[in-house]
Specification:
Elements: H1 2-18, H2 26-33, H3 36-65, H4 74-90, H5 93-122, H6 135-141, H7 150-169, H8 174-180, H9 186-215, H10 234-241, H11 247-279, H12 297-303, H13 318-333
Helix pairs in contact: 1-8, 1-9, 2-3, 3-4, 3-11, 3-13, 4-11, 5-9, 5-11, 7-13, 11-12
């Protein structure tokens, strides 16, 4: 998946670097370089999928909050997070960039710390001095049958994992394109940002998966029992098994910040997707309206309506709603339209 995303990021960055425009999205470039139908389909697909991701992230943040015992109704937390995310997107883009800088910095520090901790636990440097090595690759094993038994079950588990692994990569590269028209010196900075993006994928995703595979047993019930927040994190399971008591709450706090940050980013991209549709004539012209800071406020307001779906958590468990949003987003990920030579859009 990292290799495929590298190919996508390289192609997207080349297009956006050649023509960095304010409000430029993949739907805009599809409209400009392929056809109106391609731009129309991509635009509404991105707007819907990214809009759904906002309540998804708020739901994830709600699950994380429940890691700490509290008597506050989940609707209160949902409202606070929604108000902050929407308010940040109505502000000038420099404030959005500043908050994302600090949010992203916190996440990077956490991931580097967890990778270093995993390396230490690998050699038995934890409080219990239990050397993990590649123990869990042998027992209980690196792959488990799913639905069926034997090799057929392991084949199904591989493709099931492949489908699920799409979700962390979903629509993230598009943020480079969307911000290209609003950054300084895009023809110089976009290629730099795309290279750094790929390095982050290799370091944080590939090495992260390796780290949890080495330090956490795949059959641990805490991974699948619906535990809240960091209680279901493979890193936290490994930390608890190593006898470290204070770190899970710190990891949980950064996971909360990460979910909040992602919701902020997805609302930003979703509103720009709607703005781009209006620019290319595929959405009502009123969504082209911008305030004196250059923020398409009507597009932001309409895109913010997706946040109302977060209140599904009041009537249903957060884990169930979380899975609904995952499924809705994954169907969008695999629905990118294909434009063949005969102008038929599938």
């Amino acid at each position: 998946m990292t290799f495929l995303v590298y190919c996508v990021v390289t192609a997207m960055t080349e297009v956006a670097t050649y023509l960095p425009v304010h409000g430029g999205t993949m739907s805009y470039y599809g409209y400009r370089y392929v056809s109106r139908s391609m731009g129309f389909s991509l635009g509404y697909l991105y707007w819907y999928a990214l809009g759904i991701l906002v309540p998804y992230e708020i739901t994830a943040a709600g699950l994380v909050i429940n890691y700490w015992p509290n008597d506050v109704n989940i609707a209160v937390w949902m409202t606070i997070m929604t108000v902050v995310i929407v308010a940040l997107n109505f502000m000038p883009v420099k404030y959005y960039g500043e908050t994302e800088f600090w949010f992203a910095g916190t996440k990077v520090i956490l991931m580097i710390g967890l990778l270093l901790l995993s390396f230490i636990l690998f050699w038995g440097g934890g409080p219990n001095h239990d050397r993990l090595g590649f123990r869990y690759w042998n027992d209980p094993g690196a792959a488990h049958p799913f639905i069926k038994t034997g090799d057929a079950g392991r084949t199904i588990s591989f493709f099931s994992t492949l489908v699920s692994s799409v979700f962390p990569f979903t629509f993230a590269p598009e943020l480079l394109v969307v911000t290209g028209g609003e950054m300084e010196s895009p023809r110089r900075n976009l290629p730099i940002a795309s290279r750094r993006y790929f390095y982050r994928l290799v370091i944080f995703y590939v090495l992260g998966v390796l780290a949890i595979g080495v330090t956490c047993p795949s059959n641990d019930t805490r991974l699948t029992d619906g535990g809240a927040g960091a209680g279901s994190s493979a890193f936290v399971v490994a930390i608890a098994d190593a006898g470290i008591s204070t770190l899970p709450s710190i990891v949980n706090a950064v996971i909360l910040i990460s979910a909040w940050s992602s919701g902020n980013s997805f609302l930003y991209i979703s509103s720009r997707a709607l703005y781009s549709l209006a620019v290319q004539g595929s959405a009502p012209r009123m969504f082209k309206a911008c305030n004196r800071w250059g923020v398409p406020y009507l597009a932001v307001a309409v895109s913010s309506l997706f946040c109302g779906l977060t209140y599904l958590n009041v009537a249903t468990s957060g884990a169930t709603v979380f899975n609904w949003f995952v499924n809705l987003t994954n169907t969008c990920t695999y629905s990118i339209p294909f434009k063949p030579r005969d102008n038929q859009l599938f």
